[in-house]
Amino acid sequence: LVGRAVQRAVHKHELPEGVFSLLFGSGREVGQALVADPRIKAVGFTGSRAGGTALMKTAQNRPEPIPVYAEMSSINPVFLLPEALKARGAALGEAFIGSLTMGAGQFCTNPGLVIAIEGPELDAFVAAAGETIKGAAAQTMLTPGIFEAYESGVSGFSASDKATEVARGQRGEGPNQCQAGLFTARAADFLADEALQAEIFGSTSLVVKCADLDEVKRVAEHLEGQLTATLQMDDADVDVARQLLPILERRAGRVMANGWPTGVEVCDAMVHGGPYPATSDSRTTSVGTAAIHRFLRPVCYQSLPQALLPEALRDGNPASVSRLVDGKREA
Amino acid sequence: LVGRAVQRAVHKHELPEGVFSLLFGSGREVGQALVADPRIKAVGFTGSRAGGTALMKTAQNRPEPIPVYAEMSSINPVFLLPEALKARGAALGEAFIGSLTMGAGQFCTNPGLVIAIEGPELDAFVAAAGETIKGAAAQTMLTPGIFEAYESGVSGFSASDKATEVARGQRGEGPNQCQAGLFTARAADFLADEALQAEIFGSTSLVVKCADLDEVKRVAEHLEGQLTATLQMDDADVDVARQLLPILERRAGRVMANGWPTGVEVCDAMVHGGPYPATSDSRTTSVGTAAIHRFLRPVCYQSLPQALLPEALRDGNPASVSRLVDGKREA
């Protein structure tokens, strides 16, 4: 239905035929056939880690390997630093649930992990978040497959003796409805148990309680690649933040302070990417003006006659592009 | 020996320890162990296609796959267009052998293939090139392995009933000396026989004789990815060049006119890369100032306090870098 609407818009605005295409298929058959076709020269993908790595393998095993830009998995850790937690723990708890439940938690930048030092301030944060999540309405997820994966992930948390349930959101009545969830775990258990570290795609998050700052750092160092890492911090937290930053900027494509990772501005400076497995290729962004670089490769035209050069490269700069000439930017 | 000299220069100029490292090993053991080590995050490599693809596989099979920039194989086709061939065939023949024999043919950009329409003008080119190559001195190659691969490649040409020997250079007297070679083949045979299309790393080149311009185009379309593609052309060849250009710019990282592919200027605009198998990753250059991008990934710092930002990103631009602000370049 959406595909047909886009197709109509393409015709109405006289955009070239083929600017939008849509192929439906269940499982990986259609995707793998496309990636294996020699006419395809690069791939962009958003989906599960298993699906993305399968496409990466297909692309690498072609006679001519091609780039795959797969956005696969991210739990987007949020670090609550001590002074911020003390000053505004309850408010942070409410805002956190707002970010967690947006779009049934189906944002790649959904905050799936909160990390902080244990104590009464963190208890206040968890209590406020728990109260808020109880009021969170159930929301329909995109596909039955996504819903089933979500349910299975949450069941794993419920069944684990290492994770403690704080609260659940409202139960859904229709099919494929995501019931929000909030759990806590001790940092030592989190570090020891890979099941607690896996992404649950949907509105469920885990609060990791650390004994001290050293344990916060150990958790940060233990994390896989992420799209985002967030610091909730006040001025007095700058020194603590400075200790975490070298760890976080090696693990995420976007490091932010005092916001929530969901919700991005699509602009020139944006980065929507991150180290593996957040994406298969951390050298690029999948959104924003710089995203086009994923599908380009440089070509040098050496000593070609003006008549054969692309307009943007001709003498006198007829296309008025911003250019480097002998390493200096043209005015 | 060279490694020790570089090491001394590093100390003398007080460069950081570790800025230069050298590990020796035969076979692929050392290379594969390095690529498999989780502390390694990206790989640059120059060598054979078999070696490069082995490293690509190792890198992809790591728990955390990493980028591999392998420069592997290129035969750098040179196209002699009709008017240029008519006006200066003999001079082109001599200059060609100069490029072919430079450094015992051990440049990644060595012209291993010449493509032109058959006729008396091409015969004159081949005759001049043949005379010149006879005087070419034998030169010692870098390693016994490279020499053996060269000898085996040339033997394949000699044994083939599809390739005709024009002339050989002087025979060497010392070990591992490369004897230059020039062969011709008909385009139809070249297209049908993969052995004729393989790279011979060293001073041997093949002239492919085409029946007409359509056959020149078919040969161009049939080529694998290359570092360079060269047009020898006069003003009256512009229309022919315009027909070839869309094919060549899809197959090479550097398209040049009226030069020889060996010899590059290391500058901001240079591209030393090309479609697979010239390199494993055509999105980058391995030489020139842009080469550093191969080892970078973008990180977005969103709303971070000034004190935590890298100097280059702080308000007032204290590091005086050329920056985009809201999509406009700062003066």
Automatic annotation (TrEMBL), chains A, B:
Transmembrane segments: none annotated. This is Aldehyde dehydrogenase domain-containing protein. SUPFAM superfamilies: ALDH-like. It comes from the Bacteria. One of its GO terms (molecular function) is oxidoreductase activity, acting on the aldehyde or oxo group of donors, NAD or NADP as acceptor. PANTHER family: ALDEHYDE DEHYDROGENASE-RELATED (PTHR43353:SF3), SUCCINATE-SEMIALDEHYDE DEHYDROGENASE, MITOCHONDRIAL (PTHR43353). Keywords: Oxidoreductase. Residues 4-273 form the Aldehyde dehydrogenase domain. Pfam families: Aldedh. InterPro entries: Ald_DH/histidinol_DH (IPR016161), Ald_DH_C (IPR016163), Ald_DH_N (IPR016162), Aldehyde_DH_dom (IPR015590), Aldehyde_DH_Superfamily (IPR050740). Gene3D superfamilies: Aldehyde Dehydrogenase, Chain A, domain 1 (3.40.605.10), Aldehyde Dehydrogenase, Chain A, domain 2 (3.40.309.10).
